[in-house]
Amino acid sequence: MNIIVILFPLALGLGLLGLGAFFWCMRSGQFADLEGAAWRVLQDDDAAASPVEKQPR
Question: Which of 8, 13, 28, 37 keeps 20 to 30 A from 43, CA to CA?
Answer without folding.
Answer: 28
